[in-house]
Amino acid sequence: MVLAEAAAFAQQAAASGRNIVTRFAPSPNGYLHLGHAYAAIAAHDFARAGGGRFLLRIEDIDGSRSRREYADAIVEDLQWLGLGWDGDVIFQSTRSESYAAALERLKDKGLVYPCICTRKDIAAALKKQPARHGPDGPVYPGTCRHRDIDLAQPHCWRLDMARAIKQAGQQSWFDLAAGLQRGDPALFGDIVLWRKDAPASYHLAATLDDAGDGITHIVRGMDLFAYSGLHRLLQQLLDLPEPAWWHHPLIVDEQGDKLAKSRKSASLRSIRASGMDGFAFAVSLRNGELPLGMTLSKA
Ligand code: GLU
């Protein structure tokens, strides 16, 4: 049995003759919850229904938050759900060189700049200058954009968004459920692509990996919808192939809030500990049978 919506989109995608490759890409900074189970099922079933490949990529780029025990738990939880992946488990932490090479390319193109601002500096600058709000909160005010920065100081690298958009030109991206989208990455401002305390940001690493892993269809939750225009921009700047996306509905609680890793009650571990059979549980999720108070939200 596969998730009906995933099967419908996969058949549509397979009809184009493309060999489908999808992925589930969790961050190992907590135990997986019901929402992750749904995301993994969606990506897995999409690939299986379309005769394609399904990859498991552990996004452990952030060494301060990632823990090996959570990565191990992800593997166990997916096995419990009866979801098998193709090939070895991929770990982002082994790919820093490819992220660094991409950053160099963006430096050569003059599209990134070093930034030494601390959180405090940014908060102070935003107090003086009213902030524009982007999908991730107040937009960086550009303090370091034209500053001469001594690279011996701890610094991150930010994308010069205005230049990047100018170079990439008009962009659009395609979501199987929502149709053709006009990318609007300007909303995010000068995002961090390379962090002070860790290698590449999620945006850079995920975009490079999706291309490197040959992902044809990025299947992930609606909560990441706004990021896709940004990722499309990075693909254009780095001459990467264009995938299609399917942002699936999210499981939300009684308040309409999406589930969070901190809510232990919804963790797959706790459901498993209650003696539930994982395979049967995955079948009930595919049937839209959710625990009391939870619903699927398309918004
Ligand atoms: N690692 C991200 C997360 O756990 C998901 C990234 C993605 O699917 O693009 O939220």
Description:
The protein is built from 10 helices and 14 strands. By secondary structure, the chain is an alpha/beta fold. It has a domain at 1-94 and 249-299: HUPs (Rossmann fold). A 3-stranded parallel β-sheet has the order 1-2-3. α2 (34-49) links the parallel β1 and β2 (53-58). α3 (68-81) crosses α10 and α7 (202-212) packs across α8. The model has no long low-confidence stretch (mean pLDDT 94). Glutamic acid is lined by residues 25-27, 59, 206, 220, 224.
Fraction of residues in helix: 25-40%
Number of helices: 10
Q: What gross morphology would you assign?
A: globular
Mean of residue pLDDT? 94
CATH classification, class level of the domain at 1-94 and 249-299: Alpha Beta
CATH architecture of the domain at 1-94 and 249-299: 3-Layer(aba) Sandwich
Give the spatial strand order of the biggest sheet: 1-2-3
Q: From the alpha-carbon coordinates, what is the Rg to the nearest angstrom?
A: 20 Å
In short:
This protein has helices at 4-14, 34-49, 68-81, 96-108, 119-128, 161-168, 202-212, 227-237, 268-273, 278-286; strands at 21-24, 53-58, 90-91, 112-115, 133-134, 137-138, 156-159, 172-175, 179-182, 192-194, 217-221, 244-248, 250-252, 295-297.
Descriptors:
alpha/beta; binds glutamic acid; 14 strands; 3-stranded parallel sheet; 299 residues; single chain; 3-stranded antiparallel sheet; 17% strand; Rossmann fold; globular
Fold topology:
Elements: H1 4-14, E1 21-24, H2 34-49, E2 53-58, H3 68-81, E3 90-91, H4 96-108, E4 112-115, H5 119-128, E5 133-134, E6 137-138, E7 156-159, H6 161-168, E8 172-175, E9 179-182, E10 192-194, H7 202-212, E11 217-221, H8 227-237, E12 244-248, E13 250-252, H9 268-273, H10 278-286, E14 295-297
Parallel strand pairs: 1-2, 2-3, 11-12
Antiparallel strand pairs: 4-7, 5-6, 7-10, 8-9, 13-14
The structure holds glutamic acid.
